[in-house]
Amino acid sequence: MKLSMLKFAGKFSLLLLSLIVSAMFLAGCGEEKKDAAEGAAPAAVEKVTLKLAMDADPVSLDPHVQLSGGMLQYSHMVFDPLVRYDADMNFQPRLAEKWERIDDLTMRFHLREGVKFHSGNEFTADDVVFTLERLKKSDDYKGLFEPFVGATAVDKYTVDLKTKEPYGLVLNMATYIFPMDKKFYSGTDDKGKPKDLIVKTDYSFALENESGTGPFAVTQREIGVKTVFTRFADYWDKSGNVDIITLTPIKNDATRVAALLSGDVDFIMPVPPQDLERIKGTDGLNLVTMSGSRIITFQLNSERNPALKDPKVRLAMAYAYNNNGVVEKVMNGFATAAGQMSPKGYVGHKDELTPRFDLDKAKALMAESGFSDGFECTMIAPNNRYVNDEKISEAFVSMMSKIGIKVALKTMPKAQYWDQFDAQVADIQMIGWHADTEDSGNFYEFLSMCRNADTGYGQYNSGNYCNAKVDELTVAAQVETDMAKRATQCQEVEQIQYDEAGFLPLHWQNLSWASKSNMNTEVIVNVMNFPYFGDLVIK
Amino acid sequence: MFAFAVKRIFQAMIVMLIIACIGFAIKHNFGDPIRDLVGQRVTPAERAEMREKLGLNDPFMVQYVRFLGDVLHGDLGQSYFFKKPATEVIIKKAPATLELVFCSALIIILLSVPMGIYSAIKPQKWFSRFVMGTSIIGVSMPVFLTAILLIYIFSVELHWLPSYGRGETVQIFGWWDSGMLTIDGLKHLIMPSIALSSIMLPLFIRLIRSEMLEVLESEYVKYAWAKGLKPRRVWMVHAFKNTLLPVITVGGVQLGIMVAFTILTETVFQWQGMGSMFIESVERSDTSLMVAYLVFVGLIFVLVNTAVDIIYGLVNPTIRVAGRK
Predict the structure, then answer these.
(1) Do residues A538 and A241 make contact, with C-beta atoms less than 8 angstroms apart?
(2) How far is A479 from A461, CA to CA, in rounded Å?
(3) In which domain, by residue range, is A274 found?
(4) For chain B, N or C: smaller number of CB within 10 Å?
(5) Helix (H) and strand (E) counts for chain A?
C-alpha cells in the first residue's frame, strides 16, 4: 500500500513538473503571437521613450528627505526650481521669471503665471512660502536655509525671500527651492499622519506621492528596480520632446556599460573611467565629459602628529605629490589636477594656484625642517566612495616614501569609514567635497575653518588646520553682497591655504555621461551633474 | 510523519533563531546606518538625535531583548532604505531569486544526468573527453567572469539577449512577480541561469560520472549483465538509480550554496532579487534587512535539507526517515 502511494507521489510530481514546463512554453508562444500582432498594426503616435540607467535611483519621491546628488537629479525631473544654473553657471529663470533686490535683506521674485502642478492645482506664491517652511523643517536642508527668515507672499505671483543678515547667496539657494504643491501636501493621509511630514526611515505620504510643476510625473515606481516618468502634458516649457523616461538603477559598472553598448538602454551616468575610450570609439554613441567640482583632498592632522604641524613638512608633501601624474596614470586622465579647493568658475578660484610637483624642492624642504630623516605616520581612506580612491592613496604612499615619509595606509568601505574619519584615528585622512551651494565659501566653512562644535564650522576639518585669517575672511564673505569684493576675500583664503599647505588638494573628479548619438546630450548636462532631462530632444 | 514534521519545524526555528542572534551580534560592525540616510551637511548633534530616535543608542542588551521580542512576533525590524518592514522587502524580492535558482537547478539536472551517464558508460568517446575537459574550465572560472563574458558575447557583440534585469514580469498569486511566463522574461532568465549553473554543473557531471563508474563495477550490475538484460535497463534501472543517493545528498547542500552564489550573479546582471539586495544592504549598513536575509536563507537551507531527507527515503527504501514506523 505504502509503496504504491510513494510511486504515485513520484509520478505525480513528474507530471506536475512536465505540466509546468509545457505551461511555460505555451504561455511563451501565446505571448509571441501577441507581439507579432502588435508589430503588424502601426501605432498611431510613436511615444518618444528614453531608457535611462544610473548607478542608483532616488531614495524617495519626497525631495526634502535627503540632500544628495541623486535626489536633486530627481527634483529637476519632477519639480522645477525657482531658478537654475545654465551650462556657464549663470542663473536661468524657471518658475521665477525675474528677481530684484529690494534691500540688503530682501530679494523679490516674480513668478511665472499659469503654471500647473501635476495634481492640476495652480502654482502661486503660497506654494513657495509653504516649500521654504518645509525646507526649514528638513534635517538635511535646514542648515542650508539657516540664513533665511522665511518667505512672504506679496501677491499671487510675487514672493519675497528674507534673510537674517545680508546674504550673497540668495540666488544659489533659490536653485534648491523646488516649489511643492501646498494643497496636495496639506491635510492628513489614510494613516492619519500629516501629509507634509518628512520621514527618513518609514512610510510617509510624500514618500510615495508627488505633485510638482516639473516636466515629468512619476507614473510607476518600484524602489531599486524601476521608475517610470511620464511627460506632464501641461508643462510650460516645450523645449524637450521625450514622453516617457524609464529609469533603471544598474549598480555594477561593467553591466551599465554593457547595457548601453548592447542597446538595451539609451543613456547612462556615470561612465566608469576604464570604459571611456571604448564608448568614444563606438559608432552611434556619444560621450560627454566635463571637469567636475568635487575636490578630493588629504587632510594632514597637525594635532595628532607633530611633524605635520610644521608648514615646511606639509609643503614638502605638496611638492612631493605628483597631481598630474596621478590624474594621468591612476585616473586615466579622467580628472583635473588641483592646487586649490575652488574649481574654475567658482569665485575663489585663482588661476596661479596650480599643482607644484618638484621632488628636489620637496627634499630640500624636508632637510630644512626638523624632520630631515623623515618620519612615520598613519593614514586612512575609503575604498568605495570616490573614483579610484584606494589606488590614489597607494600612489600617495609611494610618493611620500621618496622624501622619507613612511605612511601606514588602511582602507575600508565607506559604511565604516566616516565614523573613523570623525574619530580622527589616523594622521592623514581622505575626503572629497562638493559645495552644495556651488560656492567657494562652502569649502572653507566645512573643510578648513577652525573646528568649532558650537558654530559647526570646520565639521569635516579632520586635519585640525586652523588659521584665524581664514576664519575671518570666510565669515566676512558670508554677509558680503558685493560680488567683486567677495571674490577677493575667497581668493585670499585660497592663497593662504596654498602657501601654508593646510591640506593637500589632489584633483577634481570629472563628470561623464554617455548616450546614443541621436540626442542633444551635451546641451542638457552641467557641472552640477543635474541633467535637465526636460530639455532632452531625441531625433 | 507528523512527529517528523514537528521535529523539523522545531529544529528550523532553533536554527533561524541562532542565525538571527549571530546576525544581530555582528551588525554593529557594519557601520552606522545613519550616514547613508543624511547629506554631508547634517551636524553630528542631529545625527545623534536620529540615532536616539531609532533606538541605536540603547545598551546592547536592551536592543537585543527588544529585537528578540520582535522576532518572536515575526518582526525582523524596519529596512531603513526601503522604509518598509524587512520581511516585506524580502518576500517581495524572493521570487526573483527563487526563479533564478529554479532555472539553474533545471539546467543542471537536465544536462548533468545525461552527460554524467554518457561519460561513465562511454569514457573513451571524444564527447566524454570533451565534457570532462570543459568541466575543468567551468569549475575553475569565477561566476562573475562567466557572467561578464556572457554579457559581452551575447548582448554586446551578438545582440541576441538582453544584458540586465528581469524584463517583463507577470504577477501571479497576487504577490509573486514571475518572469517565467513571458517571452521577454524568459529571455532575461537565460544568461543569469547559465552563469549561476556554471559552477555546479561540472561538479554534478563529475559526481554522477564517478558514482556511476563505481556502480558499474559492482557485483549486482555484473549479475544483471549475466542475466542478459538490455543495456538500457542495466544502465538506467540497476546502475543509475543507485548512483542517485550521493547525488541527492550533495545536491541538497549545493542548492543552498547556490542561493548564496546568487549574490554575485544578481549583482552582475542587475537581477532584482535577494542577493543584490543583500549586497546593497551591506553597503548601506541597512542592518535589519541584512539580518532578515540571513534568517530567510537559513530557512531555505532547512527546507531544502528536509526535502532531501524525504526524497532520500523515496529513492532508497532501506532508509527510513526518523519518526516514521
Answers:
(1) yes
(2) 22
(3) 205-288+512-535
(4) C
(5) 16, 17
Q: Does A30 touch chain B (CB under 8 A)?
A: no
B42, B150, B161, B186: best mutation site toward chain A, by most A Cβ within 10 Å?
Answer: B42
Residue B217, chain A, CB below 8 Å: the answer is: no
Residues A306 and A420 in one domain: yes
Structural domains in chain A (count): 3
A337 within some domain: yes
CA nearest to A461, candidates A472, A471, A451, A473: A451
Residue of chain B whose alpha carbon sits nearest to that of A384: B283
Q: Which residues of B touch A258 (CB under 8 A)?
A: 148, 151-152, 155-156, 163-164
Domain with A319 in it: what CATH number?
3.10.105.10
| A60/B152 CB distance under 8 A | no
Handedness of CA B122, B125, B129, B130 (dihedral sign): negative
Confirm if B295 and B77 have CB atoms less than 8 A apart.
no
Instruction: Say whether residue A223 is in contact with chain B using an 8 A CB cutoff.
Output: yes
Q: How far is CA A480 from the centre of its chain?
A: 27
- Domain count for chain B, please give it: 1
| Any domain includes A12 | no
pLDDT tens digits in sequence order for chain A, 539 residues long? 344 444 444 444 444 444 444 444 434 333 333 343 344 444 456 789 999 999 888 989 999 988 888 899 999 999 999 999 988 888 999 999 999 999 989 999 999 999 999 999 999 999 999 999 999 998 888 888 988 999 999 999 999 999 999 888 899 999 999 999 999 999 998 888 899 888 888 889 999 999 999 999 999 998 888 999 999 999 999 999 999 999 999 988 889 999 999 999 999 998 988 888 889 889 999 999 988 889 999 999 989 998 999 999 999 999 999 999 999 999 888 899 999 999 988 889 999 999 999 999 999 999 998 888 889 999 999 998 898 999 999 999 999 999 999 999 999 988 788 888 988 999 999 999 988 888 899 999 999 999 887 877 888 999 999 999 999 999 999 888 888 899 999 999 999 999 999 899 999 999 999 999 999 999 999 888 899 999 999 98
Which cell numbers hold the place of A502?
593646510
Same domain, A376 and A351: yes
HSE-up of residue B228 (Cα within 13 Å, Cβ side): 0
CA angle, residues A415, A420, A423, in degrees to nearest 5: 140
A514 touches chain B (CB under 8 A): no
Provide DSSP, A198-217.
--SSS--HHHH----SSSEE
Tell me if A18 is assigned to some domain.
Answer: no
We report the CATH number of the domain holding residue B128 as 1.10.3720.10
Does the predicted model carry a pTM greater than 0.80? yes
Kindly state the DSSP code that residue A538 receives in the 8-state scheme: B
Same domain, A391 and A260: no
**A422 and A400 together in one domain:** yes
The CATH number of the domain holding residue A225 is 3.40.190.10
Distances (CA, A) of A523 to A215, A243, A519, A533, A535: 16, 18, 9, 10, 8
- Kindly state whether residues A296 and A394 are assigned to the same domain: yes
Cβ–Cβ under 8 Å, residues A233 and A96: no
CATH number of the domain within which A126 lies:
3.90.76.10
ipTM greater than cut 0.85: no
Same-domain pairing of A281 and A310: no
Tell me, yes or no, if B311 comes closer than 8 A to chain A by beta carbon: no
